[in-house]
Write a structure and sequence with these properties.
The complex is a heterodimer of chains A (about 750) and B (about 190).
Chain A (H helix, E strand, L loop, with lengths): L3 H10 L1 H29 L3 H17 L1 H14 L2 E6 L2 H15 L3 E4 L3 H5 L2 H7 L3 E4 L2 H9 L15 H12 L8 H18 L2 E4 L3 E3 L4 E6 L3 H7 L3 E7 L3 E2 L2 H15 L7 E5 L7 E7 L3 H5 L15 H4 L2 H6 L10 H11 L2 H8 L7 H5 L6 H15 L6 H11 L2 H14 L4 E2 L2 E2 L3 H4 L4 H5 L12 H4 L20 E4 L3 H6 L2 H12 L3 E3 L9 H5 L3 H14 L5 E4 L2 H14 L4 H12 L1 E3 H6 L18 E3 L3 H5 L6 H8 L5 E2 L14 H4 L1 H18 L3 E4 L2 H13 L5 E4 H6 L20
Parallel strand pairs in A: 1-10, 2-3, 2-4, 4-7, 5-8, 7-10, 13-14, 13-15, 15-16, 17-18, 17-19, 19-20
Antiparallel strand pairs in A: 5-6, 6-9, 11-12
Chain B lengths: L6 H13 L3 E5 L2 H9 L4 E4 L1 H6 L1 H9 L3 E3 L6 H5 L4 E5 L2 E3 L4 E5 L3 H9 L2 E7 L3 E2 L2 H11 L5 E5 L4 E2 L7 E2 L6 E7 L13
Helix pairs in contact in B: 2-4
The chains are: A alpha/beta (about 750), B alpha/beta (about 190).
Bound molecules: iron/sulfur cluster.
Iron/sulfur cluster binds next to helix 14 and helix 16 of chain A.
């Protein structure tokens, strides 16, 4: 396989990849959601309950792995199969060739098998003079094209029909019109039928190994897998040991989740249970380890062994939608590939692909086996950082995070930057001089997003006691007598001070006594996201120290809340005292929206209705949806409390592309995700985009400005503060929205 | 499994079968199955296991002037290569998914379901179960034997090219699910329960 950088460049240069995958992801999402909804109704249980039940079955197997492997082996052997355990890809390939030589076979028909890709079987066979023929349509297309799968389930999804028609026309030497998909599909039947009948070995993977009877469960839609298993005189199964389930009934639970998650079908056309060879046939089962045992011994990633290879985690992944599986993954693509590649193919192979993850959390929402993928990917990222493997932007990130740990240094730096860039400040952005801006690679890499204006004074200065005018109190005073510690969020404090300032105003107008602890800095999320967990732990601890006490803590940044609630306990899992303190802090910390809707600051309906009915739309910060489980709280608040019409944003919860460090490491990928987001905003035909995470806001504002769109991007606090009785005179008004310095 | 089938079970099964792009039909007995098959082709393959268990199917077909192929020789694939229509008997139907559980251990049994264009799957109404667990029980009771059982749900399909659905790829492109409903003496002379 080519190096990661090359794969990424190729993907980014091919417009087909992005256009094709965006429409694939959208179509899949619709069918999958419908199917999962129907399943919940049929079973009378939630998706969460169903997937947890199945996950527990898979975990139970791994807790007694040897027992189940032995049981499977005994039963399969009794049914006439030969079961061989193989450790490495080399061992697996050698074992396969031995079987082929014994059977005197030089043609192998292959049903879809990811394990055969994992061990690089095709290359190995070709080198020793055995011809492998892929029989799954997608795999066959790729074999003709000399490519590898870019998706676990839809291997050729990165290819457009025009490319496939061109390929068939060239290789099969007859005309294939691109619009006649039917003809392209059916040619596989005629071309492959002879191969099935002539081959000496049929190879298949397995979707499950059923210990109870020694059976292999094998699913497919086309019917090719059945033929690979049935027709040749020798059937070889290549399968990872993680595929074990105890019973047939357990396998049925997998069936219920698998096809719905994979292709949005209730069940695949064929679900085959193969137990031993047919009369007159031999069957060999190669049980592959290749890092699986090691994975099981690492508690941070062991749950990834539940994977049933449905591909759902790729289908919702924003960077996957931009670059496809050749860059987003190694042999295994999508989110799961960013985890298991380290164990199956080594840390160097995962170093590049993992840097594409935006930590949006979408994969964990749809994974039918409930694997905490985002957290696992960050563990892998930390391994990569520690290993010193080459990763895009690695050194700069390391130095940057190191420096970012020092609050005073950061303070000084931003103040200096603010002064230095004062002459360049225009319309809330920093105008880069044309002499730099028009140059490559700057133009392509950075030109799509105008950098924010950096204020000379951070929010903490403006919020010093007595500096901000007393706001006119609202009629409703839900926060009367309450003391609130405001956690500014490191970015907003220095790059978008209007956000914490508006938050303070709003809370004060609702009756709160707002305090701004001076020593506060950063919750640690940027460091955690960069794979620098030691630095992250230091920052979490520092934050816990500055926010000591019993008062409510409110932050305008939902990302910090996600960090404190969700990630800090994970980071501090070995520090019991720290863990307890982080949980106490998380218990009294709110992001603004939850404080105003579910927390003590509930505002009565209509209390911020100033009569303005200009419609707005809402981007739901991805982690708030995926990690904190928030749904339409912002939309509801806007409708009820502000009285404003809200136009639903298509794909509202999808990442905007900011994605922590991704927009720095991989600007083109980030730009692609942003483009999809802004395209959705265009479809709402609104001119006000509201959201509540400062990172998203800076990113969206930069993209809106650079693309010349007429859309104002506002933090919820700014929008609401703009509707306070004395708003027009204050710098929290919408007019001062874009960095009102 | 000889209890009478609850009507809503049959209805659900019918709905799922149709959703899977198969044709659903209730028939009174094998005579009707034969007429159905004969309507499509003058040559019909029947699975060797069906031919052995219910010889009357072959007799009825031949009586109707249909040439019958039972692929039980040395090269079953070659025997059915050009036969467009095949009949198999399913062990059970699953209402939840509209699937038919077909046991096809011998190569002759397998080739008929793989290589023909129109596959006629016959199941007794009394063999329709509610959930996939019914199929799991069947498999568990036999420890997976005789060795190859498939839950089949509709004609073969693919969406590998731009996620565009095409029916009929490498396996059958038409599947007719025929449910034997009647207690007509020629209907189900054999029932394994
Ligand atoms: S990790 Fe989950 S979503 Fe991804 S392929 Fe595996 S089972 Fe499917």
């Amino acid at each position: 396989m080519k190096p990661f950088d090359e794969r990424l460049d190729t993907a980014l240069a091919d417009d087909n990849v992005r256009t094709g995958l965006t429409s694939f992801q959208r179509g899949w999402r619709e069918s999958r959601d419908t199917m999962i909804g129907a399943l919940e109704e049929q079973e009378g249980r939630s998706f969460d309950e169903l997937r947890q039940e199945f996950a527990a079955i898979k975990d139970g197997v791994r807790d007694n792995w040897d027992h189940y492997i032995d049981r499977f082996t005994a039963n399969a052997t009794a049914a006439g199969a030969t079961v061989t355990r193989v450790g490495t890809p080399a061992e697996a390939n050698e074992a396969f060739v031995r079987i082929a030589r014994d059977a005197d076979a030089d043609l192998v028909v292959k049903g879809k098998s990811m394990v055969s890709e994992e061990i690089g079987l095709n290359h190995y066979l070709e080198d020793v003079g055995i011809t492998p023929v892929e029989t799954d349509l997608g795999e066959w297309i790729l074999q003709l094209a000399g490519e590898t799968p870019s998706h676990l389930v839809m291997p050729a999804i990165h290819k457009r029909k025009e490319q496939i028609a061109e390929l068939f026309t060239r290789v099969l030497e007859r005309e294939f019109p691109p619009d006649d998909i039917d003809r392209m599909v059916k040619v596989a039947r005629t071309e492959l039928r002879q191969k099935f009948l002539a081959s000496g070995i049929g190879l298949s993977g397995a979707n499950a190994l059923i210990a109870e009877g020694g059976s292999i469960m094998l699913i497919c839609n086309e019917g090719n897998n059945r033929m690979s298993v049935a027709l040749p005189p020798v059937h070889v199964v290549t399968v990872g040991i993680e595929k074990l389930v105890p019973t047939y009934a357990d396998a049925m639970k997998q069936v219920r989740l698998l096809a719905r998650s994979a292709t949005g079908q209730p069940i695949t056309v064929y679900t085959n249970f193969v137990t031993g060879p047919r009369p007159g046939q031999q069957q060999h089962i190669l049980l592959l380890d290749n890092g699986r045992t090691a994975m099981n011994e690492d508690p941070d990633v062991a749950a990834a062994l539940r994977c049933i290879r449905c591909g759902a985690c790729a289908n919702v992944c924003p960077p996957y939608g931009v670059v496809g599986g050749h860059a987003f993954g190694h042999v295994y693509t999508g989110a799961i590939g960013l985890v298991n590649t380290e164990f199956h193919h080594g840390i160097e192979e995962v170093a590049g692909p993992q840097s594409l993850c935006v930590s949006c959390g979408a994969c964990a929402q749809v994974c039918p086996t409930d694997i905490p993928l985002p957290m696992q990917i960050l563990e892998i990222r930390q391994d990569v950082v520690e290993s010193g493997a080459a990763v895009p932007g690695g050194r700069i990130a390391h130095l940057g995070i190191g420096a970012f740990g020092h609050r005073r240094l950061v303070d000084l730096g931003f103040r200096a930057l603010g002064i230095a860039t004062t002459p360049l400040r225009r319309d809330g952005v920093t105008k880069i001089p044309a002499i730099i801006a028009d140059r490559e690679p700057f133009a392509t890499r950075v030109g799509w997003r105008s950098p924010p204006a950096i204020p000379v004074r951070p929010a903490r200065d403006t919020l010093k006691r007595g500096k901000l005018a007393e706001p006119t109190p609202l009629d409703a005073q839900p926060l009367a007598g309450r003391r609130v510690q405001l956690f500014l969020q490191c970015l907003s404090d220095r790059m978008a001070p209007e956000i914490p300032i508006a938050t303070a105003k709003l809370l004060r107008a609702a009756g709160a006594h707002v305090m701004v602890p001076r020593e506060q800095h950063c919750c640690g999320l940027p460091a955690y996201d960069a794979g620098e967990q030691d630095a992250a732990r230091d920052m979490v601890r520092q934050t816990m120290q500055t926010l000591e006490g019993i008062d409510d803590v409110v932050t305008p940044a939902s990302s910090c809340l996600a960090m404190l609630k969700h990630d800090a306990p994970h980071l501090l899992r070995d520090d019991l005292d720290g863990l307890e303190r982080s949980q106490q802090l998380a218990g009294r910390t709110y992001d603004l929206i939850s404080y105003l809707t579910a927390g003590p600051g509930r505002l009565p309906a209509g209390s911020l209705d100033n009569g303005d009915r200009t419609p707005v739309t809402v981007h739901r910060f991805c982690q708030a949806s995926n990690t904190l489980g928030r749904r339409d709280a912002i939309e509801q608040l806007l409708r009820d409390v502000a009285g404003v019409p809200v136009v639903p944003l298509p794909e509202a919860s999808e990442c905007c592309g900011f994605g922590g460090s991704t927009s720095v490491r991989h600007p083109e990928v980030s730009a692609g995700i942003l483009d999809r987001k802004l395209g959705c905003v265009d479809r709402t035909e609104t001119s006000i985009l509201i959201t509540d995470n400062p990172g998203c806001i800076l990113h969206l504002r930069g993209g809106v400005h650079a693309s010349g769109r007429e859309v104002r991007v506002l933090h919820l606090a700014e929008y609401l503060a703009g509707r306070l009785p004395d708003a027009t005179s204050a710098d929290g008004s919408p007019d001062a929205s874009t960095n009102g310095a | 499994m000889n209890t009478t089938t609850a009507p809503n079970l049959l209805q659900r099964f019918a709905a799922r079968v149709t959703e899977a792009s198969s044709t659903y039909l209730e028939v009174a007995g094998w005579q009707q199955v034969v007429e159905h098959a004969g309507g499509y082709s003058e040559v019909v393959a029947i699975a060797p296991s069906l031919a052995a268990a219910q010889p009357e199917v072959r007799e009825l077909l031949e009586a109707a002037g249909v040439r019958v192929v039972v692929p039980d020789g040395d090269d079953p694939a070659a025997e059915v290569a050009d036969v467009p229509v095949a009949i198999v008997r399913a062990e059970m139907g699953v209402a939840e998914s509209g699937s038919l559980l077909v046991s096809e251990h011998a190569l002759g049994d397998r080739v008929v379901t793989m290589l023909c264009h129109r596959l006629i799957q016959v199941v007794a109404a009394s063999d329709i179960v509610d959930r996939l667990e019914g199929a799991a029980e069947w498999l568990a009771a036999r420890n997976g034997q005789p060795g190859f059982a498939s839950l089949m749900t509709g004609p073969s399909r693919t969406a590998d090219i731009e996620r565009s659905l095409t029916i009929g790829v490498q396996g059958p492109d038409e599947v007719d699910v025929l449910v034997l409903t009647a207690t007509d003496p020629t209907a189900t002379t054999e029932d394994d329960a």
